[in-house]
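Checklist before submission:
- one chain only
- standard amino acids only
- sequence pasted in full

Submission:
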Amino acid sequence: MSLSGEQLKALARQGAAQRYLELQKELAALTATFPELARGGKRRAAVPATTAASRRRRSMNSAQRKEVSERMTKYWAARRAEKAGAAGAAKGRRRKAAKKAAAKAE
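Returned file contents:
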């Protein structure tokens, strides 16, 4: 049995109408269970602009920036000195090892 294009469209339209009614019933049941869904899914009122503005990160003033700059300069100088000291100690160990090896060779 072969259906014409018009018959197929009519059957598709009937199926779509039936599905539409089913979806409307399902939507009514959901909104009865969860009333906040009828308001677009928002559970609470929108946050006022003043509260959102207070959450922004505050920028530092020039005195604070200078303080941080000095503190970090000291920090990195100490790190470089520590690294140089460790490298110097390693060099010292190599020199001692070389001296011991030379003493044994004699």
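Reviewer check: The CA atoms of residues 78 and 84 lie 10 Å apart.
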